[in-house]
Design a protein that fits this description.
The protein has 11 helices and 2 strands; from the N terminus they run H-H-H-H-H-H-H-E-E-H-H-H-H. By secondary structure, the chain is an all-alpha fold. A hairpin with a 3-residue loop joins strand 1 and strand 2. The longest helix is centred in the C-terminal third of the chain and has 29 residues.
Length: 282
């Protein structure tokens, strides 16, 4: 019996949601394993999408660069291998050199620069910005306390996306970016920002030692970033002519389809917390 797409989405969510929260709650290596899997998987999907436009590059980069991406996150100041942070510049130079060699060997001249630029951009995007996920967990300890910042980022993405979907269906009349994502509306975007502002107004004073108005401001900025992150993946998929980033999650697509907003929201949240309330991170 073949399950409908909606049934697959529900069943997968019921199983995967509690599992993800449990691994995050455990802390230590289970949390690090989960975050590493998400970062490496996102980079693999990204490279897989790029290969749709540059198939001659082959599969080797899809095996090497995701591992490199995770390594860069691991040697970040809050990563499991933070003691190797001094090797970051050397690692970047070596990765860029290897990427150039792969492009020179396999691609036609006109494809070399676009592919190298996008591949290197992906390493930086998922490697360095993805490293903010480790920082937002506030160390390796377990429990819900260290997860407040990361759950804030995840909650913004989920609440904003849900508000945009329902408000867009009910009130949406004006397209937000019709050439990039025809389903998104201005009304839905406004609803998303209002919803994330309300979420921030509760979350920041209750769990991050900030003021209500600081929470409203951070929530609004993150809500806007979540929309941009979603649009960014939509542009990428339309450029490559693919519907989903992968089929890793039954009924949901791939990691990028589910976490496209988070990879932009997480580093922005970290930067905002450091800028406005440096004491929140300690």
């Amino acid at each position: 019996m073949t399950l409908s797409n909606g049934t697959q989405r529900i069943l997968f969510g019921v199983i995967a949601g509690p599992l993800v929260l449990w691994l995050l709650w455990l802390g230590g290596w289970p949390r690090e394993f989960l975050l590493s899997l998400l970062l490496g998987g996102a980079m693999w999907e990204y490279l897989r999408i790029l290969r749709q436009r540059c198939p001659a590059i082959g599969l080797e980069v899809e095996m090497i660069l995701p591992v490199v991406t995770v390594f860069l996150a691991w040697i970040s100041p809050s990563g499991p291998l933070a003691r190797l942070e001094h090797s970051r510049d050397l690692a970047l130079i070596l990765v860029f050199t290897w990427t150039l060699l792969q492009a020179f060997r396999r691609l036609e001249r006109d494809d070399v620069f676009p592919w190298v630029a996008m591949a290197a951009g992906g390493v930086l995007y998922f490697g360095f910005w993805g490293a903010s996920l480790f920082t937002l967990c506030s160390g390796r300890g377990g429990g819900w306390g260290p997860l407040a910042q990361l759950l804030f980022a995840i909650g913004v993405c989920w609440i904003g996306d849900s508000a945009a979907y329902f408000a867009g269906r009910a009130f949406g009349r004006h397209k937000l970016c019709p050439e990039l994502s025809p389903g998104k509306t201005i009304e839905g975007a406004v609803a998303a920002v209002l919803a994330t502002s309300a979420f921030g107004a509760w979350m920041v004073p209750a769990h991050l030692n900030g003021t209500l108005w600081l929470g409203v401001g951070i929530g609004a900025l993150l809500g806007g970033a979540a929309i941009l992150g979603d649009l960014l993946e939509s542009v990428l998929k339309r450029w490559a002519g693919v519907k989903d980033s992968s089929r890793l999650f039954p009924g949901h697509g791939g990691i990028l389809d589910r976490l496209d907003s988070l990879f932009l929201v997480a580093p922005l949240l970290l930067a905002l917390l450091r800028s406005f309330r440096h004491g929140m991170l300690h």
